[in-house]
Design goal:
Elements lengths: L2 H22 L5 H24 L3 H9 L1
Length: 66
């Protein structure tokens, strides 16, 4: 697994955990929800950019197999 994929996964889980914490606890600052949402969106943005950059990697492998 690529290092950037690990970082993206950690960001997504960290943001999700922060949002779950903010939803489940009473009297928590709304900034926790905002920060959690921003962290999730950052992780998803980085992940989709990685997927777009590497979407054609498998085509080169298929041509070399022939």
């Amino acid at each position: 697994m690529n290092n950037s994929q690990v970082i993206n996964t950690i960001l997504i889980f960290l943001g999700g955990a922060l949002l779950l914490y903010a939803i489940s606890v009473d009297d928590v600052s709304p900034y926790f929800k905002i920060i959690g949402l921003i962290i999730i969106m950052l992780g998803l943005y980085r992940a989709t950019n990685f997927w777009v950059a590497t979407k054609d990697d498998h085509e080169g492998q298929n041509e070399s197999d022939k």
